[in-house]
Amino acid sequence: MWQAELTRSVCLYLLCIVFYSSLFGFSIYLSWHIHLGLTFLLGCLFIFEFYRGYKKIIQHVGAIAIDLTVQQIYWQKQRWVIRRKPLLLRYFAVVSIQSLRTKKRCTLLISYDQLTSEHWRSCCYYLERLSQAF
């Protein structure tokens, strides 16, 4: 069983800012000549969606543990089962999980700056071992 503590990620926050800013800029570029009210409505919508994304990012903190024997993740005082093969990138890991207690589905996005470098390497190793079971 591997365990570590997830902290807040500056990298995920910056990625969220860049994504929503570029999407907002592109939509403004396409719709500015149509109607100013529509442009204002799109701006409000993007600000709302950015806030929702930011709230989800700051919730991805706390103790996490990976148990290879039962192929489960312990996170936020719940047991989660992995629904799909985890996507492992160089700086991010995307894990689709489902709670055993509430059946709630969640996509856990783990960034390299949420963990120490040793914990990041071991987290990727254990997630790779879990993905071999799929």
Describe this structure in words.
With 134 residues, the chain is of the alpha+beta class. The protein folds into two domains: 2-7 and 63-131, SH3 type barrels (Roll); 10-58. It is 45% helix and 28% strand. The protein contains three helices and seven strands. The chain has helices at 10-31, 36-58, 117-131; strands at 2-6, 62-67, 72-75, 78-82, 87-88, 92-99, 105-111. Strands 1, 2, 3, 4, 5, 6 and 7 form a seven-stranded antiparallel beta sheet that branches. Strand 3 (72-75) and strand 4 form a beta hairpin. Helix 1 runs antiparallel to helix 2. The protein is elongated, with a radius of gyration of 18 Å. The two termini are 19 Å apart. The mean pLDDT is 89.
Quick gist of this model?
This protein has helices at 10-31, 36-58, 117-131, and strands at 2-6, 62-67, 72-75, 78-82, 87-88, 92-99, 105-111. It is an alpha+beta fold and 134 residues long.
